[in-house]
Specification:
- The protein is mainly α.
- Helices cover 55% and strands 3% of the residues.
- Strands 1-2 form a two-stranded antiparallel ribbon.
- The protein is globular, with a radius of gyration of 17 Å.
- The chain starts with 12 loop residues before the first helix and ends in a 6-residue tail after the last helix.
């Protein structure tokens, strides 16, 4: 779980962008450290966000963006009726299972991005009121969008986690890095 993004190797734009995406993924993953399923599913604020729900949302969202870029249907497409399920674990879903699912998505994203001829290659956006008609975006845009989305939700996760038990992102980074309580 990356907590600092090192400078990229000269000319390795793909690597740099993938590293920034991974840093934000790590922030979301760290927010779940040491929690029970019940704690991860709890919603300590009026927003209704939970850590396990945020995890599921970003994992599914990343897969959906990958499938759009690949111009393939997504296994996790949602309808208006099932949209709320993208923010909560349902049935036999668990945090561990969702982390494993996301790990698979991460591998696919990296493999795909490393395989495209150019970050300037584009793919069409779906028809939606929030996208321009017949809009297209580049692979570079996709990676920047993943940084943006994951960072937004990592911030949500920081607030939810601190509301649950007072643990801050800095404390969790220290724990993962092995330098907690070295006083």
């Amino acid at each position: 779980m990356v907590d600092h993004v090192p400078a990229e190797t000269s000319g390795d734009e793909r690597g740099a962008l993938l590293s920034f995406v991974e840093a934000q993924r790590g922030a979301i993953r760290r927010s779940l450290i040491g929690l029970t399923e019940e704690q991860a599913a709890s919603r300590p604020s009026a927003s209704g966000l939970s850590l396990s729900g945020l995890l599921k949302h970003v994992a599914e969202g990343e897969l959906n963006w990958l499938r759009m870029a690949q111009q393939r249907p997504s296994e996790t497409s949602r309808t208006e009726e099932t949209w709320a399920d993208s923010f909560r674990l349902v049935g036999d879903e668990t945090v561990e299972g969702m982390l494993e699912f996301w790990d698979g998505v991460v591998v696919e994203v990296e493999k795909f991005i490393r395989s495209v001829p150019s970050l300037d290659d584009t793919f069409p956006l779906p028809q939606a009121p929030w996208f321009p008609k017949e809009g297209r975006v580049s692979m570079r845009w996709l990676l920047l969008h993943l940084v943006e989305e994951h960072a937004r939700h990592a911030g949500h996760a920081d607030i939810v986690r601190e509301s649950l038990d007072g643990r801050t992102a800095f404390e969790l980074v220290a724990e993962v890095g092995g330098y907690a309580d070295q006083s």
